[in-house]
Amino acid sequence: MKVENPTLFIIFGGSGDLAHRKLYPALFNLYRNGYINEKFAVIGTARRDWSDDFFRDTVKESLKKFCEDEKTVDEFIGHFYYQSHDVNDSEHYIILKKLAQKLNDQYELEDNRVYYMAIAPSLFGTVAGHIKSEDLMTKNGFNRLVIEKPFGHDFESAKALNDEISQTFDEQQIYRIDHYLGKEMVQNIPVLRFNNPVFETIWNKDYISNVQVTLAESLGVEERGGYYDGTGALRDMVQNHIMQILAQLTMEKPNEFTSQKVHESKKALFASLKMLTPDEVDANFVRGQYGTNQNQTQISYREGLNIDPDSETETYVAGKVMFDNDTFKGVPFYVRTGKRMPEKSTRIDIVFKKEVKNIFPTLDTDAIKENVFSIIIEPDQGYELLMNGTKVGMNFETTAFDMAYKHTNAQLDQVPEAYERLLINVLDGDQTNFTHWDELLSTWKYIDVIRQKWDETPISFPNYRSGSVGPKDADELLSKDGNSWFWQG
Ligand code: NAD
Q: Whose alpha carbon is nearest atom 41 of ligand 1?
């Protein structure tokens, strides 16, 4: 497929980790697959004093493991330009503007611009302000801002940032990345719910007992301690990724799957999020921090690089989220995320209510299991359904069957990277899979109550071992409701 998407990408933070690990490979795949062709150019900006050639070599290096076809890579990197740039220096934006105009004419880019913030969040507002004051926005084409997480660290700071960028860009021009919304199986959820009457009819409080969302990582914080210790799992994973997964699972069916209708549906959903009072936090949310593993071969969180040895930062969160709406009133949505869990696994387990009336006199009611429908997001991708049936043989005995579907390895090879999909969406002007300000506003307010309560309450850490499924309290969170975690690692 070949489509013309004439665009100038201006990447602030063009020498950084995100740009090299995610953006350049994603852009390269768009090029290879014909989403961008001759009419595109990239300006990478960063503080260092690099030449175009040096910059191109760094981009080439980042593509090494994706492509052996040197000719295509060379053609691709020929579209890359470098601009040494200090975000606070107005002069640099004027130079940048001139380069942007030159490339616009040279590559026939039709005044279309994507401004990508691959820089520290503290610089987002400054850059957006200069884009306005130094008049970088074009008049005829599109001007789209792509902004990375974290979008604020609480409601106040998120609002301040939003106010700042809104001086330059309006909501229709802002693409707030939540890369979970770029994942194949997360994008699949609405199709699964709304294109299968078999699920659509039972996706409500009448049939669902509880829903469990797990984002487990086997790795620890590794070298990201400096960032992580000031953030923690609640802000890093729950406020954004988990909340967006919950929205995919619970938003009312939009009458059309367009960006506007989907965001309206999500806004209504988050408005029904049952806010906790500070007094309710402890009964509904559990935090944890990993210690060493059983053999003591792994260091604990507090022993990590750039981490306060007395740190009370949580590397694990489990919580019970409720929605006050007609469809899900009373259904607990248990969520958890943690580092150094037994294995990497991102999954959703939907536990259905058990049929209580046993009409088979010879069958043992206790042997009947609850149906569980699982959406496996990564590293495998697929679905599982736990069902009841009879054992093979003369005896009329029940057994549970697991009906499982998995994408094959060949299919997995075809799955586009989240960033690739999201960049195509940006080029198409499709904001469906980006976070709207209304959603951030609600989710930050929800999270702030928990964060504030935790900040005021000292805790004894570490409280779970590396390689385990998390602290004991997380099991009690469910057992006191008569439930238990389906995924046990
Ligand atoms: P990084 O430190 O590797 O890169 C930062 C970039 O910003 C560099 O190019 C640096 O030169 C530039 N920069 C810093 N100060 C500057 C200044 N004063 N003027 C001009 N340029 C300046 O960071 P990163 O890991 O690439 O992260 C970039 C952004 O993406 C951050 O907002 C981060 O939260 C977000 N993010 C990163 C990842 C990831 O996997 N790396 C994942 C999710 C979100």
A: 18
Q: Average the pLDDT over 469-477 and give the result.
A: 98
Q: Which atom of ligand 1 is nearest to the CA of 86?
A: 19
Residue 361 belongs to domain with CATH number: 3.30.360.10
- Per the CB < 8 A criterion, the answer to whether 12 and 118 are in contact is yes
Distance 241 CA to ligand 1 centre (A): 20
| Residue carrying structure tokens 């401004």 | 115
How far is the centre of ligand 1, averaged over its atoms, from the C-alpha of 169 (Å)? 21
pLDDT, mean of residues 139-144: 96
Predicted structure pTM score? 0.96
Q: What is the mean pLDDT of residues 118-124?
A: 94
pLDDT at 1: 63
Residue 252 has what DSSP assignment? P
Residues 265 and 404 in one domain: yes
Assess if residue 172 is contained within a domain.
no
Domain assignment of residue 50, given as a range: 7-148
103 and 25 in a common domain: yes
Share of the chain above pLDDT 70, in %: 100
| DSSP letter, residue 416 | P
Asked if residue 425 is part of any domain, the answer here is no
- For residue 159, being part of any structural domain is answered with no
Nearest CA to ligand 1 atom 4: 16
Together in a domain, 221 and 134:
no
Domain count, the chain: 2
Note whether 125 and 243 are same-domain residues. no
Residue list, ligand 1 pocket, CB within 6 Å: 13-19, 46-47, 85-87, 118-121, 148-150
407 flagged as catalytic: no
344-373, pLDDT tens digit by residue?
Answer: 999 999 999 997 788 888 888 888 899 999
